[in-house]
Amino acid sequence: TGIATKEKDPRKSIHIEADPGDPQSALLVPAFDFLISRLERFDTARNNLADAFFKGMTVGIIEGDWASARMPGDTEKRLWWFPLAIRDVDKRRVRVEYDHEKRERWTIFSFERNQWETIKSEDAWHYLWHRYDTTERSLNYGVGLCQRLVYYWTIKTIAFETFTRGAERWGYGWVVGSLKNLVGGGSATNLKSYTTMANEFVSAIEKQREKHIFVKDMDHVDIEVFGPQGTGHEMLRDILDYCDQQITGLILAATLPTGSSADTGGSLARADVEADSTQTLLSYDRSILAETLRGLLLAVHRCNEGNLAALGLEEIGTPRFSIHE
Fold first, then answer.
1. Which residues pair with 97 in a beta bridge?
2. CA–CA separation, 274 and 256 (whole Å)
3. Number of other residues whose CB lies within 10 A of the CB of residue 28
4. Could you report the per-residue pLDDT of 165-212, keeping only the tens digit for each?
5. How many CB atoms lie within 10 A of CB 264?
6. pLDDT for position 232
7. pLDDT mean over 149-165
8. Torsions phi, psi of 277, nearest 5?
9. What's the CA gap between 80 and 55, in Å, rounded?
10. Is the model's pLDDT at 253 over the cut of 80?
């Protein structure tokens, strides 16, 4: 599960530690290591919650059961509540509502009863709410990276579609053909209209350009070939590069080492600054995820309060998770 025991493995990316505000909570660390030892697929659950970075908000439901077990250091078996899983909940299944007194309440859609149901306060401890960049504008749903990326992604999609449509024109350039208008001369039965001749001329060009050969009538057809113009092509490339750079910057809070096509080399000073920016962003993400996961420990504490009191640990505060590289 990635949870360390008494002798913490430094290779683990997450472990339980004492709350700096309550040093005595270190006494509960071995007990909580034991109580969450049956939690399955904890890595997957953490990854699901961490998706709030992209989605704005993720929700998990803590599922557990009672079992008789003897905690290390205890002299007898007791009935303990063990968390067994953190089940992912699609954010579209939850929504915020307001009653007639404008009090906020969260509801969840029940597939069994096909209706929205209020999450009662006594059941709220089952839920882990992980929100990213919560603001009043987001109505407590959080603001995820996807909401910021959508603008650049839309621009990039349109620019790339235009780029592919114009590839043939930019690659081949323009061909201008001049035809002498034969209408009004010769026998009417042998003459073709100018429109018919122009259409036939275009068809002939399309066929013969595939073989890079063209045969023309020296007396009635003049052809001029203009090379491809790179201005439109370069403009779209600049737009694509700009979008790529902005997307990279939003995700990593940095553009090095990828940079942009205009970059001819990297700056050590710039690389150091951007590396610090990326690390700051990652540290922030880890800290808010650890804060959300503390709800799991609070749920364990809540359900096992009686046993902890019997062991003389009821007055000690709940420890916390620490996530590191």
1. 105
2. 7
3. 24
4. 776 666 666 677 776 655 444 444 445 666 777 777 778 777 776 666
5. 6
6. 65
7. 87
8. -65, -45
9. 35
10. no
Q: Tell me which amino acid residue 57 is.
A: M
Q: What is the pLDDT of residues 228-249, one digit of tens each?
A: 665 667 788 888 898 888 888 8
Distance CA 314, CA 321 (A): 19
Q: Residue 83: which of 303, 318, 292 has the closest Cα?
A: 303
Task: Let me know the angle formed at the C-alpha of 106 by 148 and 305, rounded to the nearest 5 degrees.
Answer: 115
* Token representation of residue 220: 């009635």
What SS3 class is residue 115?
Answer: strand
Token pair for residue 54? 């992209």
Cα 44 to Cα 87: distance, rounded to the nearest angstrom? 10
| Dihedral of the alpha carbons of 321, 253, 162, 210, in degrees to the nearest 10 | -90
- Structure letter (DSSP) for residue 139: T
User: Under a CB-based contact definition with an 8 Å cutoff, are residues 32 and 62 in contact?
Assistant: no
Among candidates 167, 94, 84, 183, which has minimal Cα distance to 130?
94
Whole-number Cα distances in Å, 242 to 63, 144, 145: 46, 21, 18
What's the full length of the chain, in residues? 325
The closest of 295, 317, 289 to 26, measured between CA atoms, is: 317
Number of H helices, E strands in the chain: 9, 10
Rg (CA), the chain: 34
DSSP secondary-structure letter at 75? S
Q: What is the pLDDT of residue 4?
A: 35
Backbone angles phi, psi at 165, to 5 degrees: -65, -35
Kindly state the percentage of the chain with pLDDT values over 70.
74
